[in-house]
Specification:
The chain has helices at 34-44, 58-67, 85-92, 187-197, 216-224, 261-270, 282-285, 291-306, 341-349, 364-373, 390-398, and strands at 3-7, 28-29, 32-33, 49-54, 74-79, 100-105, 108-112, 127-134, 143-146, 149-153, 163-173, 201-205, 208-212, 233-236, 274-280, 314-318, 357-361, 376-379. The protein is of the alpha/beta class and 399 residues long. The chain has 2 domains: 3-224, Spore Coat Polysaccharide Biosynthesis Protein SpsA, Chain A (Alpha-Beta Complex), CATH 3.90.550.10; 233-398, Rossmann fold. The strands form 5 sheets. A 7-stranded mixed beta sheet has the order 5-4-1-6-11-8-12, with helices on both faces. A 5-stranded parallel beta sheet has the order 16-15-14-17-18, sandwiched between helices.
């Protein structure tokens, strides 16, 4: 699954004048449009295409993406001629939709592993919803579930009790729209409601920070939030740790995961830990393969993780080696482990604290790298199921 669809056509009337002639998802949060925060997360999660369903003040969106190119992902904008609601906007874009796709609201975000809801999309469910646990559901309305099956949506202000709310992210089978005609419809009230009655909707909790920008109060909260504060991160070596090391491994056909690697990454994603790869790739300097071959390999790793509701937040690599034969890569780089260049860059880019970082690797150079940078480490022997290390990893980061 490679497509994520974002609903950005609403008027944002609760925000008053600031959205009268301006799309709510284009409001700046931390010096860039809220929509860009969403798209950056989508890129990290491994999607290759974003479909923007625009309406109100769509020219602002179109002009922004004419001037600003988002690398490594395709952005398509589908504009409605008149207001169609969230359901009508989907129907208007029907011919552009993949058979299965993720759908999200353009005015809210879950800083958690919402990819995990993919596993609930099966023969018994046509839609899977990301649910957020709240101490008070009165502002949003609650979602009642039984054995991961959504059985009821409760109206706003009915109850101020703790429970689950709709997180605004869905995994959807396109065929649910097949027999509907383009009209002014609500996805939630007209389409999803009927599917719940037919017992075709699943829901599961996604842990992580949730925010919407639909009210002046929540918009202010989003601007004041530090989403990466105290975030924990696990950095993996690649060859010999996450995948079998065939010697200068770079071909997709040679990608064989170490036992338990995918399960461990998924486990860490679900805990809302950041997951990175930091890998020496001397084969590039030595002419064994090209840098683009490595990127293709990493994309395939991400694709395979994606299918299992998991992802890697970033790949850091060192293509340099002092004994290389490719001139531009033939240097003694501070990025090459056990030097600390990759870890220093990673920590800086993601605003990480050293006491919240841990490196997992199979070589002494990996462990020495962690020691040189002043972070914790776990050495993998390359034999046991990698997922067996999860308790050790979590306890080390919690200690």
């Amino acid at each position: 699954m490679n497509q994520c669809v974002i609903l950005i056509g609403g008027k944002g009337s609760r925000l008053g004048e600031i959205t009268k002639n301006f799309p709510k998802p284009m409001l700046n949060i931390d010096e860039k449009p809220f929509l860009i925060h969403l798209i950056n997360q989508i890129k990290i999660f491994g999607f290759s295409e974003v479909l923007l369903l625009a309406g109100h003040s769509s020219s602002v969106v179109e002009e922004y993406f004419k001037k600003n190119i988002i690398k490594n992902i395709t952005i398509k904008i589908i504009t409605e001629d008149s207001p169609l609601g969230t359901g009508g906007a989907l129907l208007n874009a029907y011919e552009h939709l993949d058979d299965t796709f993720f759908l999200m609201n353009g005015d809210s975000i879950i800083d958690g592993n919402w990819l995990s809801i993919l596993e609930n999309l099966d023969a018994q469910n046509d839609v899977s919803i990301a649910l957020i646990k709240k101490d008070n559901c009165s502002r949003y309305g609650s979602v009642k579930i039984k054995n991961n099956k959504v059985i009821e949506f409760e109206e706003k202000k009915v109850s101020n009790q703790a429970g689950y709310i709709n997180g605004g992210i869905y995994c959807i089978k396109k065929h649910i729209l097949k027999n509907l005609t383009v009209n002014n419809l609500s996805f939630e009230n007209d389409i999803l409601f009927q599917l719940v009655k037919d017992k075709r909707v699943s829901g599961s909790e996604v842990k992580g920070y949730f925010i919407d920008i639909g009210t002046p109060e929540s918009l202010k909260e989003a601007n004041n939030a530090d989403w990466l504060y105290e975030k924990k991160a696990v950095i993996f070596d690649r060859d010999g740790t996450l995948n079998v090391d065939h010697g200068y491994t770079h071909k997709i056909s040679d990608l064989v995961w170490m036992s338990g690697a995918i399960s461990l990454i998924r486990h860490l994603n679900d805990l809302n830990y950041l997951v990175f790869v930091a890998t020496n790739q001397a084969g590039i300097a030595k002419g064994k393969y090209k840098e683009n071959d490595m990127h293709i390999f990493h994309n395939e790793m991400q694709n395979q993780l994606h299918k299992n509701g998991a992802h890697i937040d970033g790949f850091f690599f060192c293509p340099y080696h002092k004994d290389g034969i490719i001139p531009e890569y033939s240097i003694d780089s501070q990025d090459r482990k056990p030097n600390i260049g990759m870890l220093r860059e990673l920590a800086s880019l993601w605003n990480l604290r050293k006491n919240n970082m841990l490196l997992v690797g199979d070589r002494d150079s990996d462990i020495q790298c962690a020691e040189n940078f002043g972070i914790k480490s776990v050495k993998y022997n390359g034999v046991v199921n990698l997922c067996n290390l999860k308790d050790n990893i979590v306890s080390s980061l919690m200690g």
